[in-house]
Structure formats: C-alpha cells, structure tokens
Design a protein that fits this description.
166 residues; mainly alpha
Length: 166
C-alpha cells in the first residue's frame, strides 16, 4: 500500500508540474499581474481528498519549488510559496470543519492564495497600496476556485475508485 501511495504521489507531482508549465505557456492577460487559473491546484485538491493532508502538503511544496526553479526566480517562488502555504492551511481547516464541499474548499484556497501573495508583496515592496488589487484577485480566486473545485470533485471520485489508495 505504501508503494502505491508513493507512486501516486510521484504521478501527482509530475502532473502538477506539467499543468504549471501549460499555465505558464497560456497568455492570460487580464490586466492584473499574477492572475492565473491555477491549473496545478487541481492536482493539489485531488491529492488532499485522495492521498491525505501530508502527501498533499508535500505535493504543494515540491510543485512550487520545481516550478520556481524551472520557470521563475526566487521572488516568484517566494510569492508562490506564501500563497500556497496560506491557501493550503485554509483549505485544510475548511475541509476539517466539513462545512464546505470540495468546491467550497477550492474557492477558499483560490482566494487565500491571492491573499498570501498580496501580503508578501506588501512586505517586500513596503507599500499597502497593493490592497487595491485584492478585490479583483478575490473575484478571480473565486471564479478559478469554482472551476477547479468542480473539476477536482469529478476527478476525486474517479481516482478514489480507481486507485483505492487511502
């Protein structure tokens, strides 16, 4: 059973990396710096609901580091890590309360990913004026969270049945 979990985690990391690359290639420009769909978060959501919190956390951290070294720089990695950590903590709490569906957990993750990035950017750039971006980023995080949540809900059912890894 442990070998199966490790193999699945490796596949999930590879898939998250590939989806990050696909998103990197997509020219999404809506006028807000850093706004993305968050395709790799789809894999983190599925991992959270199929592999568990420890493996999903490891997946999230490894993905940010791999993508940061491959497609970005240290600053990008810092912003991504802050967003990923805050997002993951909020998703974990929301999942544990059982008050939210997978889609609800995903929406919270999308919103708080943006909040984490804004907080770090405010410290790095020493300005609070970045808070003006937050309403726009909350809307984008909500929309992408809904899309990622609905898709991850459908995938989670199939992965759980297919692999039976818990």
């Amino acid at each position: 059973m442990k070998t199966k979990r490790i193999a699945c985690l490796g596949l999930f990391i590879a898939l998250a990396f590939v989806l990050s690359y696909v998103e990197y290639l997509l020219p999404l420009n809506i006028g807000i710096p850093g706004a993305k769909v968050g395709l790799a978060n789809l894999v983190v959501m599925v991992a959270l609901y199929t592999l568990g919190k420890k493996d999903a956390a490891l997946l999230s951290i490894v993905r940010v580091v791999l993508v940061g070294f491959t497609f970005g720089n240290l600053a990008m990695m810092l912003y991504s890590m802050a967003g990923a950590l805050l997002s993951f903590i909020v998703m974990l709490i929301a999942k544990r309360t059982r008050l939210f569906s997978i889609t609800g957990v995903s929406v919270l993750g999308g919103v708080f990913h943006n909040v984490g990035q804004i907080i770090v950017a405010m410290f790095v750039l020493e300005t609070s004026s970045l808070l003006y971006y937050l309403p726009f980023l909350i809307v984008i995080g909500t929309i992408s969270g809904i899309v990622i949540g609905v898709i991850s809900s459908m995938i989670t059912v199939r992965v759980d049945r297919l692999f039976d890894i818990k």
